Amino acid sequence: MIKIQTPLDTKIITRLRVGDSVEISGTIYGARDAAHKRFIEILKNNGRLPIDIENQIIYYVGPSATPPGFIVGSCGPTTSSRMDRYTIKLLEYGLKGMIGKGIRSKNVKKAIVEHNAIYFVTYGGCGAYLSRFIRKWDIAAFPELGPEAVYKIEVEKFPAIVGIDVKGNDIYF
Amino acid sequence: MKIIKEKDILEKIYHAVEKASFTLDPSIKQLIIDAQKKEKSPLGKKILDVIVQNLEIAQNKHLPICQDTGMVVIFFEIGSNTRIEFQHFETIQQIADEAVKKSYRDFYLRKSIVNIPDRKNTQNNTPAIVWYKNIPGDQFRFSLMIKGFGSENTTRLKMFRPTASIPEIIRFTVKCVKEAGPNPCPPVFVGLGMGGTAEKAVFLSKYALLDAGQPRNNETAIFEEQLISKINALGIGPGGFGGDITCLDARIKTYPTHIAGFPVAVSISCWAHRSHRGYL
């Protein structure tokens, strides 16, 4: 088990290999389809993103509602490939890591290698289990998107597996 | 004539949504536990262990099994000798939507439904997808499915030649699961619809998923077992990380079709196959 702290350190990321089990602690950001679309529109118009993604991780997540007394509801990963069309631009702007589930495109894989970035995968459909590793869950931007808002999340020992490493090795192939 | 009260339908659907969101049907859970024993890949086994833990946490803490609490699909079977006593609503769709609205609010489920074309969230997870079938007698039954879209996005329809053979259809189905790969959260459930028109085949493939974990029908059992073993031979494994168990169950529904065609559809459900049956 390898412990990972955010913001990500390139030296540590470079040593990770596909299939390694990791525990992530620190601040990560949650964003999915609609938020990604907006990020890219902002960047196209030379605007500033509502979050600083430099050396950070984006988790592809849209949680269920938070019941009273809970930090968050169920919060497992969504299918990453839908974010592929937006990912390369975000990597160019300094994004270092992603957490999701499933396959990435060849172009995303190439960009991950080029930017010394990393793609983690975590347990699909296990949102109740994963909620236990969340310490704080706040809306960071676009509250009007409902479950698709951008979130600032504090995680402690959040479990994941290296899906694509800096060399482009892929757990699914 | 049997009188069915609006509020009884509403209540049954409300609790069916709750039940399906937090617990799996025992027959579905058993298939996962059996898979846990059979899986030989260490990572595959680990995934299944976490899945079982997730089910326990969901049940004990009353958290949804998966954050994608889906679009609600309800198949009603309504006896000819029944009459619904409407009070506040005018249609079954309205009753179903009211029940969905209430359960998604009260049980803190994710509201995932958006209008088209503006993709604005409807804020209450309605409308539900509602299908009706008229049956003889005085029974009123429904089967409800909470359908997540990680798996829904992998649905496929193919209009085969009328001379296509069953082995060809089986190869196509296996290919659909292969192409879906890790995206629909394997190990998966597979529904195969054969015949009818295009939309009927898709309907059948979805309807077939409701049979998962139930006793098999003799006519299609042999093909269903072939599908399971051929899909498992793909080696996609739990979570898509490689392993012996890719398919927990496969079910087939058929319908007569036209001499000029052979519509075939494949629906996939993630391992969290959430459904519930109710009757009045």
From TrEMBL, chain A:
Alphabetized NCBIfam families for the sequence: ttdB_fumA_fumB (TIGR00723)
Organism name: candidate division TA06 bacterium ADurb.Bin131
Molecular function terms, GO-annotated: fumarate hydratase activity
UniProt cross-references to Pfam families, sorted A to Z: Fumerase_C
EC number: 4.2.1.2
UniProt keyword Lyase present: yes
Membrane-traversing stretches: none
Tagged with keyword Lyase: yes
PANTHER family, sorted: L(+)-TARTRATE DEHYDRATASE SUBUNIT BETA, L(+)-TARTRATE DEHYDRATASE SUBUNIT BETA-RELATED
Domain Fe-S hydro-lyase tartrate dehydratase beta-type catalytic as annotated: residue spans: 2-172
Protein name, UniProt field: Fumarate hydratase class I, anaerobic
